[in-house]
Predict the structure.
Amino acid sequence: MTMTQTATRQTLSLPHMLWLLLRQQPWRYATGELLPLSFFLAGRLAFSLLLQVFFNRLQQQSGPDLALWLLPFSFILAALARAILGSLGNHALVTALFKTTQTLRHNILKRILERPGARPLPGSTGEAISGFRDDIEIFAQLFSRLLNVFALTCFTSIALVIMLHTSVRITLFVFLPLLCVVIVVQSMKKRLEKYRVASRAATAEVTGAIGEIFGSVQAIQVAGAEERVTEHFSRLNKRRHGAMVQDSVLSAALNSLFGNTVGIGIGAILILAAIARGSEHLSVGDIALFISFLGNITNFVQSIGTLLAQVTQTRVSLTRLRALLQGAPDTALIAPAELYLQHPLPQTTLPAKYFASELHILQTHNLSYHYPDTGRGITGINLEIKGNTLTVITGRMGSGKTTLLRTLLGLLPAEAGAEITWNGVKVAESASFFVPPHCAYTPQVPHLFSDTLRENILLGLPVGEEQLHKAIQNAVMEEDVIQLEAGLETVVGVKGVKLSGGQAQRSAAARMLVRPAQLLVFDDLSSALDVATEARLWERLFSEEQHTCLVVSHRRAILQRADQVIVLKEGYIEACGRLEEVLDQSSEMRYLWLKDEIE
C-alpha cells in the first residue's frame, strides 16, 4: 500500500470554474445556446438594416416597387429558419445543462461517500439536500444567462457601431440606462447576498425538519407530540416564507427598476431623435433603425442587471457547496464524471478474495482519538487480533467501545502516532481498507433506506438466492421474512420504520454477512436483540466455518465464548485476555460481570 497524501485546498474563482465546466462540452453549449441565439440576433440585425432601407425607399418612391414589397417575405422565411434551428438546438442545450448539474451532484455525493462514515455533514441533512437541489440549479441558470449575455453583447457591439455612425449623441444616450443598472446592482450587492443566505438557510431548516419528522413518526406518536411538531414545522415555514419573500421581492424590484429605467431612456431617445432630425438629417429609416435596435438593447441592459444579481447569488451557493466538499479542492467539484446517460450502468460485482488479504493477525499501536468538543475518546490502544478468533470489547457506557471500533475502521480519524497493520503490512488508509473483502461492519444503530428489505440487504449486490437466504438465516431473520406482508419485497419505510429494532439490527447483520469478509465487526447487537435470539445468531455464525470477529457486547454468553476479552475504562484498556484472566486481573470486569446489565 502507498501512503495517502492530503490534497492542498485549491480555491478557484467563479469565472474559472464556469470556464472549466464549459470546456467539458463546448459543442453542446455552442449548438444549444450560442448558435440559435446568434442566428436570431443576426436575423434581428439584418431585419433592422432592411427596415432602414425599406422606410428610406418607401419615403423616396412615388410608385409601386416590387422588390420593396418582397422584403416582408424574407422576414417570414428568416423567422421559420430561426424556429427550426431553435428546436434543434434546444435538445443540445437541455442535455448540456443536465450534464453540468448532474456532474456537480455526482462529485459532491462522491466526496461525501469518500469521507469517514462517522463524520457528520458540515450542516444539517436539510442543508445538504437544499445544496443538491437548489444551489446546483443556480449554476445552470447562470450558465444560460452568461451565454445569453455573450450573444447579446456581440449583437449590441455591432449595433453600437451602426448607431454611432448614424447619430453619436443619441447612441450615447441609449447606453445611459446600462450605467444606472450597474450602479444600482453594485449598491445592492450586500443586501442581495444577505437575503439569499437567509433564504437558503431557512429552506434547509424546513427540508431537514421534513426528513426528521418522517424518520421519527413512531416517536412522535408515542410521545403524543403531533401538535407541538406541527407548530414547530409551521414556525419554520413562516420563517422561510419571510426570508423567501425578502429575497424574491428585492430581485423582482431590481428587475422592475431595470425595465423602467430602460423605458424612460427609450422615451427620451425618441424625443432626442425628433429634435435632432433637423440638425442631423435623420431619415425615417434612421429613426426606424434606432427603434428596432432599442428592443434588443433593452434586453441587453436587463440581462446585464440580472446577471450581476445572479452572480452574487451564485457566490452564496458556491460557498455552501464548498462546505459540502469538506476540505476538498474546488477541482473535485467540477471534475468530469461518467454519468452513463447513453450507456448501461456497470454491473456491481463481488470483490475478489485474494490470498494476500486473508487475515492472520491484525495489530494496532497507540491508536487514539479524542472528540474535539469534549476531549473524551480513546488513548494509546494496543490490540492484537488473530485470525479465526472471537474478540469481545466490553466496558461501561461511555468507556470508548464504539469510538475504538470507528477509529480502527477509519470512520473517525486516528491521531498522529497511531499505526494499524494487517498481516504485518501497515494500513495507510483505514477508511478505504476496512471494507469487503477485508472487513464488514454492523453499527449499533443500523442505517436502513425506504426500499424493499431485499434491496436494504443487497444494496445492488448481484448474488444468488442461495447466498442471500444463507445470510438471512445466519442473521436469524428467516422467520421474520415469512411474517412480513410481502416477504423480502416489503418496503421497510424511512429508516426501517416498519421493522422492530431487533429486525432492523438483524437486517443490517444480514447485509454484512452476504458480503464475504475476513473480519466481521459487530457493535453491540445486544442493544436490540433478546438473549435467545442473539445466542442463536452466534451459534449459527460459528457452526459452519471459522470467522474472525470483533464484537462489542456485555452479554455473558458471548463473553464466555470469546477467545479474547478487552476491558475498556475511560478510554484505556484496563485488561485483556481470556474471560477467566480478566475477571481475576480487573476489578472493572468483576464489577461489570456482577452488574444487573450482564445476563
User: Anything to note?
Assistant: Residues 464 and 588 are 46 Å apart (CA to CA). Strands lie at 361-370, 377-386, 390-395, 419-422, 425-426, 439-442, 519-523, 548-552, 564-569, 572-577. The two ends are 43 Å apart (CA to CA). The first helix runs from residue 14 to 24.
